[in-house]
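can u do me a favor
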């Protein structure tokens, strides 16, 4: 079997889905970079406080990405079957769960911010500033719940540009209010760290308004309306979601918790380690946005193809995505290597923090190749193919069986150099990359998740009596 699909339509479709998503991720990363640069002018404490406070939001976002990723397995295949009514049912269920989770996170951030910050660090200065940041995050979580759900499901039916437009708008709003509220410019109060949170809240509300107007006034594919929020729960949809979507949700939940353990390790090492890692995370995001675009394209196209009953075609496409993932990983590696000095010099941090950042980024040049192949092949092709249980066991098992224990051992017990601690914390990336490639060599990952509903609909009804 050839590793390269020769159909030009395939590549046009990949670009049509991946490019807008990649640009959206780039803009989102730019927002994070601006926050980090501006707060970096106030020192390591301010930067570390916002970084650790955002770990709470990171966990919330990953839970939502898991929730919508699970829903996307269903909606992408329903779209392949041209079943928009089932898509609306999935959306209604997803909204209810997502908003319920958002309420819980909003309560925690609003009323127990200090307790949440103490999970990540014992530095009282960082806890104080981070608590001030978190108190503004409740509204952010609620708006993000709606936006992430809507844009993720729109993406599975090929609507990707609106998410980009709304993100660009939020970037400019965030930039304007960041500058004014962090430093007290343009007549605004000087708020420091809380100003960054308030600016983000305003930007997210603008994004929420744009997505809401589009969904109810301009979308012509799904036709979701307000009444669909309250429609009766379809037990068949719930059953399919629990079978194929719940593993994705659990995957992202336990992965995000495991990833936050990395923040715990670095937070207990010191503010310099946290600040350096924040810089490196932004650099990785800025150089890997196209990887997530390709992963989303792989998930959507695999789901659509299997939903249309073309399983052999889906397998052929999976081989090409392996080649694409390797190529994009190498490009990201070269970009990180070339941009190291430029990016680190943007930040007003100590020399020791910069030295730590350099050591992490040198290692990141290698790790990102494995991460690119793992993300595209595991979370793109395999998950889009309905193999969510394998992805759950592989990803979470590697995170909690390798990365977390090795990270705690190397960082808090053995006190290894931070670059070595970082390698331990990212060891799961290598494992999942290899496991994903082995899985793709077979055919067990190809699953039509809508087949159960098909059988129910196609079974003739008999009368008794």
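np, heres the sequence
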């Amino acid at each position: 079997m050839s590793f390269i699909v020769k159909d030009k339509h395939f590549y046009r479709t990949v670009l049509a889905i991946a490019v807008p998503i990649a640009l959206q991720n780039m803009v989102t990363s730019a927002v994070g970079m601006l926050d980090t640069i501006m707060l970096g002018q106030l020192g390591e404490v301010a930067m570390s406080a916002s970084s650790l406070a955002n770990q709470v939001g990171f966990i919330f976002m990953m839970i939502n990405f898991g929730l919508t990723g699970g829903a996307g397995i269903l909606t992408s295949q329903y779209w392949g079957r041209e079943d928009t009514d089932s898509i609306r049912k999935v959306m209604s269920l997803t909204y209810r769960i997502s908003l319920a989770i958002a309420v819980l996170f909003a309560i925690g951030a609003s009323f127990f911010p200090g307790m949440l910050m103490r999970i990540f660090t014992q530095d009282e200065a960082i806890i104080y500033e981070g608590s001030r940041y978190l108190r503004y995050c409740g509204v952010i979580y609620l708006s993000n719940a709606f936006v992430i759900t809507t844009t993720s499901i729109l993406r599975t039916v090929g609507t990707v540009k609106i998410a980009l437009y709304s993100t660009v708008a939020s970037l400019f709003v965030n930039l304007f209010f960041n500058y004014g509220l962090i430093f007290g410019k343009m007549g605004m109060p000087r708020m420091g760290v809380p100003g960054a949170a308030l600016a983000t809240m305003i930007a997210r509300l603008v994004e929420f308004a744009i997505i809401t107007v589009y969904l109810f006034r301009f979308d012509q594919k799904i036709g979701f309306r307000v009444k669909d929020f309250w429609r009766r729960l379809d037990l068949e949809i719930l059953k399919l979601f629990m079978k194929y979507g719940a593993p994705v949700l659990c995957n992202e939940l336990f992965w995000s918790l495991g990833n936050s353990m990395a923040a715990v390790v670095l937070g207990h090492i010191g503010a310099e380690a946290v600040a350096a890692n924040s810089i490196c995370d932004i650099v990785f995001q800025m150089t890997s946005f196209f990887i997530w675009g390709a992963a989303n394209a792989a998930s959507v196209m695999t789901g659509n193809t299997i939903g249309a009953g073309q399983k052999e075609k889906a397998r052929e496409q999976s081989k090409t995505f392996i080649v694409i993932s390797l190529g994009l990983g190498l490009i990201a590696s070269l970009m990180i290597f070339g941009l190291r000095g430029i990016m680190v010099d943007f930040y007003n941090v100590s020399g020791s923090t910069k030295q730590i950042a350099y050591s992490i980024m040198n290692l990141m040049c290698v790790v990102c190749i494995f991460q690119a192949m793992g993300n595209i092949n595991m979370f793109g092709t395999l998950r889009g193919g309905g193999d969510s249980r394998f992805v759950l066991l592989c990803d979470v098992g590697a995170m909690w069986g390798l990365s977390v224990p090795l990270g705690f051992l190397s960082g808090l017990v053995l006190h290894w150099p931070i670059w070595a601690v970082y390698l331990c914390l990212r060891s799961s990336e290598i494992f999942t990359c290899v496991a994903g490639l082995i899985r793709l060599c077979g055919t067990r990952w190809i699953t039509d998740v809508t087949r159960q509903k098909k059988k129910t609909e196609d079974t003739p009804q008999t009368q008794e009596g």
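Residues 44-80 form the longest helix (37 residues). hope that helps!!
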